[in-house]
Amino acid sequence: MQLIKLKNLLFLCFVCSAISLYAQTESGSLETYSNNYLAAMPGDSGNDYTSPTTQELDDWELTIGYLLNDDLVSARAEADTYNYQVKEYTDTDASPDHDYYILEEKAPQSKYWGSYVFNPTPCRETLIIQAPHPDEDFNTGKQGAYCFVRLNAKALFISGTNRCNHSSFSSCDGTTSVCSEATTAYRISDVAHNDDTPFQRATKKLYTADNNAVFVQLHGFSKKKRIPM
User: Which residues form the domain of 152?
Assistant: First the structure.
């Protein structure tokens, strides 16, 4: 009798573990969900962004491949190795409801690689919307979600932090004065100027899967007062 109870307990633990890992579903407004993500994003300091290892980038690419093939079981198992999850999200603002896959980091976060939304039934199968500077380039994160939903695009990529979040510099050519009064190299948290990121690896994976893919990055420029000549 005790052996049977023990087996039942072990089975219950296994079921609970499987539910925790695989039964990740949610519904609501995708734009509101995205805006809440943006509101919680780390700002222009803190060194929250973590550079991925080579193995993590390889695992990340496998996850993206599984998602493109609608293999959620494999994608979730792979994502779990680096603290990410795949959530099935039903946008109830759409008419009829529309389902998406969201690749996002689990709490507590430690990597801040961004949020990636995939549309398994897109109208525009080659269009990918990207917001690499969703905070610093004002409102481009919100604009990305707005465009993605209304264009019924293939995917939406939003970075995980402000572009100036990390104090370390990337190896990208060029300089900028966005993050300080002085002109400096780009930061590693600036995913539009760092090719050693999950953001870039996901971009490459989608292009490899379909070389007709079109990537539209949203950028913004602040208004400055014109100086009289």
Answer: 23-217
